[in-house]
Predict the structure.
Amino acid sequence: MKTRKWYVLACSLALFLAILSCGISYNVGPQATAPVAPGTMVGETITALAAQAITATDTLTPVSPPTNTSTSSVIATAKSPVVINDTLCWLGPGPGYVVSSSILTGTNVVLLGKGSIPGWWIVNDPIYHDPCWIYQQDLQIDPNYDLSNLQTFYPPSTPTPTLIPTLTPTIVPTLIPTLIPTLIPTSVFTPVPTS
């Protein structure tokens, strides 16, 4: 039982010392007027902590906020290009090529280059992350965007269509003559004379 009381007392003292060392102030009500006996472990610890707290506050000097010494020139940063119309993005310039994906209005895209054919830009497809071609009128590019370092893309060759042979149906003539005699009656009508 005594061990438990000492354990609770030691934990309480450790918590108290931790609070003092953090410098957090708490409103604990009226202060105790009973002095701590000098020469005890508690008294020496409190004295040492108080000396550290006084030294720490004495050495801290307030730091003034930094002053703005730069000139008031504003450097404009370019915004990412944005798609302004729902559009398709092709693997080459236009409907003669395979569609890579569709891009919705308001989507920011990464501009990879310009097409060798005027009116086309190459962007990073936001879905598949491959280069694809987009119409110039479907893309809004910030005037501050640096276009000088963009690569020029040349359209890939269009695939040549492969002809698929088609079969034409033919009627087998040997089947028809065998069916005709069975469909036509073999008896002949002879009229009877009337008197």
About this structure: Residues 82-153 form a domain with the SH3 type barrels. fold (CATH 2.30.30.40). Helices lie at 2-22, 41-59, 175-183. The CA atoms of residues 91 and 132 lie 5 Å apart. The mean pLDDT is 74.
